[in-house]
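hi! just following up on the protien thing from before. the input was this:
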Amino acid sequence: MASSDRGTASRPSVGDLPDDARLWIFGASRPLAAEEASRLDGETARFLEGWAAHGEELAAAFEWRYDRFLIIAVDERRAAASGCSIDALMGHVRQLESEFGVDLVSGSPVWYRDGEEIRFASRREFRELATSGDVSGRTVVFDLTVGRLGELRAGRWELPANSSWHGQLLP
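and the predicted 3d structure came back as:
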């Protein structure tokens, strides 16, 4: 599955931002159809165009990856995201949830690959899957807790379960 970066030309792309850019990753409870993904792109680009902290425009970019993950990064060297601007971001994401009928801000599911499919489960369910042998330490998981773009680039976002905090859920 290829990643896509559909930010607007006037905004930086995620690839243009430095490794220390602050990062938020939201997982969609279902893949979006092409039309929905296109609308998500447009609405998120518009949101980022006006995203500011204390009147300072934020240098932000986004990426919609694997038809499941909304990745938003901000270069805080120019202006740092504040509590109010983060609240605005969360409001935008909740609006997307409502519009598309998907959960993006749920309570910490475990995201993992099952072959080519991306799935999610509660921590309890993931532990049960591990006990039954349906997932293992080699299962690729997605760590949505990474907070800096450099962590994503270094492979700390998508990695084997035994190389992340997910390993504590394995027997």
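Strands lie at 3-4, 22-27, 52-53, 56-57, 59-65, 69-75, 110-114, 117-121, 140-142, 158-160.
The longest strand covers residues 59-65.
cheers
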